[in-house]
Design a protein that fits this description.
Helix content: 40-55%
Strand content: 5-15%
Oligomer: single chain
Number of domains: 2
Number of helices: 12
Radius of gyration: 21 Å
Number of strands: 12
CATH class of the largest domain: Alpha Beta
Distance between the termini: 40 Å
Length: 375
């Protein structure tokens, strides 16, 4: 967490007052919430009334995908098509699959190219084929595994031309690259990705967007997300996002330099390593690498034992390694997809961290290769 976020949270954790109450303590809490809403809206380039607080990015994605679909179906029953990129985070992926399995949605998965960028021409073709029947389009701002930034402006323009709501999961992008939340109809962001607390997020949603709520109750947050607002977490999120926006250019340049050094040294010092994703148009803090002849889980656990934490970036079911759906969609074979790791860098990453990784990684890779991939 950023120190600014921690300070803001601690100040509110010792205070009292439900921001929905009318008494003095409640009004004080409401002031904190609304001031936070205004600062978040300013960073996201939207009106304060567009900012809806949630418990995190997953809830924001589910509220947008399911809420937009259900509202559109209710108004126009023939609109059953949902167009989604094939590399979405599971918060979107599973929500879309739920609509297909349980709510009669006709799901169209949009392909991506070899670096993980959605095929805009295929989107245009699908919008033509589904004209008058498409309920929504969902394409993430930047991929959470390989870091490739998506052509959001082009997607938004196509959706606007066909009068289709467009949702974008920007959880990985906010605070890392310029994000204008007014471009899509709805946009999801999360607190802990910008140095804020866990368990709080934002759905930026145009006031004109019809969204059916997932949770019913007191009618908070425009009656599309009921529940008592978490004032300390909201204050922490606002402080973190404001700080992340203020130092973004300097921080991103530093992180990108370290990321490029990591990739250059790993690829140069270890045979059989390839980089995944767009090497240029990508998030600054993600290095996604495949290690030939290795099992990703073995690499992860061996590195973890040495005090270095990284990620597979994919699901693992019942202890059996599963290839990443993102890498498979990009055209990698299952064995290569299973041999991959995501190294994440941030504002606290230093040159010594890169040195430490390179001290350990060659031996870890050699050991993993001796063990070979899982059957």
């Amino acid at each position: 967490m950023r120190p600014e976020a921690l300070e803001a949270m601690l100040a509110e954790l010792v205070a009292v007052g439900n921001p929905s109450s009318q008494h003095t303590s409640g009004r004080r809490a409401r002031r904190i919430v609304e001031e936070s809403r205004e600062s978040i809206a300013s960073v996201l380039a939207v009106a304060p009334g567009d900012v809806v607080f949630t418990s995190g990015g997953t809830e924001a994605d589910n509220l947008a995908v399911k809420g937009l679909y259900r509202a559109r179906r209710s108004a126009e029953p023939q609109r059953t098509w949902v167009l989604s990129s094939s590399i979405e985070h599971h918060a979107v992926l599973d929500a879309v699959e739920h609509l297909g399995a349980h709510e009669d949605a006709d799901v169209v998965w949009l392909p991506v190219d070899g670096v993980g960028r959605v095929d805009v021409e295929r989107l245009a073709e699908s919008l033509v084929a589904g004209e008058g029947r498409t309920a929504l389009v969902t394409v993430m701002w930047a991929n959470n595994e390989v870091g490739t930034i998506q052509p959001v402006a082009e997607v938004a323009a196509l959706c606007a031309a066909y009068g289709v709501p467009f949702h974008s999961d920007a959880v990985q992008a906010v605070g890392q690259v310029p994000v204008d939340a007014s471009v899509p109809t709805t946009l999801a962001a999360s607190g802990h990705k910008v140095g804020g607390p866990l368990g709080v997020g934002v759905l930026s949603a145009r006031r004109s967007a019809a969204i059916e709520p997932l949770v019913h109750g007191g009618g908070q947050e425009r009656d599309i997300r009921s529940g008592t607002l978490d004032t300390p977490a909201i204050a922490g999120l606002a402080a973190a996002l404001t700080a992340a926006d203020a130092d973004r250019d300097e921080r991103v340049a530093q992180v990108r330099t370290l990321r490029d050094e990591l990739v250059h040294r790993v690829v140069g010092e270890i045979d059989g390593v390839t980089r995944n994703g767009d090497p240029v148009d990508c998030l600054p803090g993600i290095a996604h690498l495949s290690f030939e002849g290795c099992e990703g889980d073995a690499l992860l656990l061996l590195l973890d034992a040495a005090g270095i934490e990284c990620s597979r970036g994919s699901a693992c079911s019942a202890g059996v390694p599963q290839p990443s759906h993102v890498l498979l969609a990009m055209g990698l074979d299952a064995l290569t997809a299973r041999s991959s790791l995501r190294f994440s860098l941030g504002r606290t990453t230093s040159e010594s961290d890169i040195d430490r990784l390179l001290d350990v990684l060659p031996g870890v890779v050699a050991r993993a290769r001796r063990a070979g991939p899982a059957r």
